[in-house]
Specification:
Blueprint: H1 2-14, E1 27-31, H2 36-47, E2 54-57, E3 61-63, E4 79-86, E5 89-90, H3 91-103, E6 107-112, E7 116-119, E8 134-135, E9 140-141, H4 169-174, E10 180-182, H5 188-204, E11 208-211, H6 219-226, E12 244-247, E13 267-269, H7 271-281, E14 307-309, H8 333-345, E15 350-355, E16 363-364, E17 367-368, E18 377-378, E19 381-382, H9 404-416, E20 421-426, E21 431-436, E22 440-445, E23 451-456, E24 462-465, E25 472-473, E26 476-477, E27 481-484, E28 489-494, E29 502-506
Parallel strand pairs: 1-2, 1-15, 2-6, 6-11, 11-12, 12-13, 13-14, 14-15
Antiparallel strand pairs: 3-4, 4-5, 7-10, 8-9, 16-17, 18-19, 20-21, 21-22, 22-29, 23-28, 24-27, 25-26
Helix pairs in contact: 2-3, 5-6, 8-9
The protein binds ligand QV4 and calcium ion.
The site of ligand QV4 has 21 residues, from loops.
Length: 511
């Protein structure tokens, strides 16, 4: 009995690093700006059948309505209250989504914007997604309520009241990030208000939180409100399960604030991952895929068991936040699929797949002047996600998570979960391959010439469907086949002009 108790305590204390996905599901998809009713449908019709572990949703709390520019996506990062009431839906629709997704084993992770309220420059009134009154000038948010006592104005030492230097850890935490009214998180009243908001979501059934702008909160203040959080809802989670926490901290190195400052609270977003992988796959700065042999901690990333990783996110796919020009996105489809495929095959971190909307990019002097454009909408109402005959999405939803190559690599990651990184091979340039124990094997050709090689895969003998060029349907491969001989070796040929110059096989795609 004592052993069981010990195991349950150990399991419990590690839980804030654990996404609590259903057994055999390993990846999260960010359904950026989707409506709650569409997410519920997607959980049932697509995410559960294809082994997605959970969904990161856009902030569900009431936000400011920005009319100039017209309804930018980033208005949702300017809270007005903690009412579940946004363009994605109301509380009833939110509850329905959480229930339906949990009932098919797909978790919900909430984007929690708790460092600040709306921008200092916004005019007072009721221009908010639920009509709540607010007055930035007097720091009044009557639907919480917050008043001037609850903000950091007195504590910030810069003349502008804004963050002026990212190397001054006090400014970064106690001053306004791009003018956003900064909450006084050392106050128990503020910590309690935030905990009440997050506990409301936990009681409805969410599995955890992306904590927005974590770099701008003191780790100790965050711990104070995180310690006030309830255990997860036992309708869907084991007794004593702690909310999964992943903190948005952009640390590309060189700043006073480090990701490791936040490890005590939960996982942390590893922004070096997407920035470096984009540089390697684009073959910039002399980078080459052969260097990926020691990918992960070998590249000075944080420990794998603290990392939340992604190729791009909602900020850096449009030039916000960090990562710069090397970030690969759906706009760079062929290279993007290789990068996402590599991420999902490699054992490092908890993986998050981006699912975007298309917007009218328009570059002036190298900057996309339409980087603010919000989700597809009809006079402000977010458009439904329509599904086409060919299973792609309509209405300008990109649905990268439905692209065969990405969906099948999410499944690949599930099949190889727990298997070690094995059988690495490279040609010294941009042709590389590796296996995951005896469950899966992947090979890339990112050179400007053909790949033709016979390699040890570690897999049992048999005929495998390549899940990049097609699917295994009934007992038939719709794409290429790979034959693994009794000694585990297989021959691979990949043209450098192939639509997708990589091949992936695993034991669940074996004829
Ligand atoms: C402007 C001026 C300010 C001025 C202010 C007056 O820039 O100097 O004081 O007006 O009100 C929008 C506008 C921004 C404007 C601000 C209003 O773009 O120009 O300030 O509103 O104050 C998103 C967008 C921001 C947007 C913000 C709020 O990226 O452009 O600002 O939402 O609507 C750092 C952080 C990191 C952060 C990243 C973007 O360390 O945490 O910057 N990433 C997260 C989210 C991101 C979000 C925020 C944080 C803020 O991922 O999407 O910013 O919640 O690296
Ligand atoms: Ca702050």
């Amino acid at each position: 009995m004592r052993l069981l108790l010990l195991l349950s305590v150990l399991g419990g204390c590690w839980a804030q690093y654990d996404p609590h996905t259903q057994y055999g599901r390993t990846s999260i998809v960010h359904l950026f700006e989707w409506r709650w009713d569409d997410i519920a449908l997607e959980c049932e019709r697509y995410l559960a059948p294809n082994g997605y572990g959970g969904v990161q949703i856009s902030p569900p709390n009431e936000n400011v309505v920005i009319s100039n520019p017209s309804r930018p996506w980033w208005e949702r990062y300017q809270p007005i209250s903690y009412k579940i009431c946004t363009r994605s839906g109301n509380e009833d629709q939110f509850r329905d989504m959480v229930k339906r997704c949990n009932n098919v084993g797909v978790r919900i992770y909430v984007d929690a914007v708790v460092n600040h309220m709306c921008g200092n420059g916004v005019s007072a009134g009721t221009s908010s997604t639920c009509g709540s009154y607010f007055n930035p000038g007097s720091r009044e948010f009557s639907a919480v309520p917050y008043s001037a006592w609850d903000f950091n104005d007195g504590k910030c030492k810069t003349s502008s009241g804004e963050i002026e230097s990212y190397n001054d850890i006090y400014q970064v935490r106690d001053c306004r990030l791009v003018g956003l009214l900064d909450l006084a998180l050392e106050k128990d009243y503020v910590r309690t208000k935030i905990a009440e908001y997050l506990n409301h979501l936990i009681d409805i059934g969410v599995a955890g939180f992306r904590i927005d702008a974590s770099k701008h909160m003191w780790p100790g203040d965050m711990k104070a409100f995180l310690d006030k959080l309830n255990n997860l809802n036992t309708n869907w989670f084991p007794e004593g399960a702690r909310p999964f926490i992943y903190q948005e901290v952009i640390d590309l190195g060189g700043e006073s604030i480090q990701s490791s400052d936040y490890f005590g609270n939960g996982r942390v977003t590893e922004f070096k991952y997407g920035a470096k992988l984009g540089t390697v796959i684009r073959k910039w700065n002399g980078e080459k895929m052969a260097y990926l042999k020691n990918w992960g901690e070998g590249w000075a990333f944080m420990p794998s068991n603290r990392a939340l990783v992604f190729v791009d996110n909602h900020d850096n796919q449009r030039g916000h936040g960090a990562g710069g020009a090397s970030i690969l996105t759906f706009w760079d489809a062929r290279l993007y699929k290789m990068a996402v495929g590599f991420m999902l095959a490699h054992p490092y971190g908890v993986t998050r797949v981006m699912s975007s909307f298309r917007w009218p990019r328009y570059f002036e002097n190298g900057k996309d002047v339409n980087d603010w454009v919000g989700p597809p909408n009809d006079n402000g109402a977010i458009k439904r996600v329509t599904i086409n005959e060919d299973t792609t999405c309509g209405n300008d939803w990109v649905c990268e998570h439905r692209w065969r190559q990405i969906r099948n690599m999410v499944i690949f990651r599930n099949v190889v979960d727990g298997q070690s990184f094995t059988n690495w091979w490279d040609n010294g340039s941009n042709q590389v391959a590796f296996g995951r124990g005896n469950k899966g094997f992947i090979i890339f050709n990112n050179d400007d010439w053909a790949l033709s090689v016979t390699l040890q895969t570690g897999l049992p003998a048999g005929t495998y469907c390549d899940v990049i060029s097609g699917d295994k349907i009934d007992n038939h491969c719709t794409g290429n086949q790979i034959y693994v001989s009794s000694d585990g070796r297989a021959s691979f040929s990949i043209s450098n002009t192939a639509e997708d110059p990589f091949i992936a096989i695993h034991v669940d795609a074996k004829l």
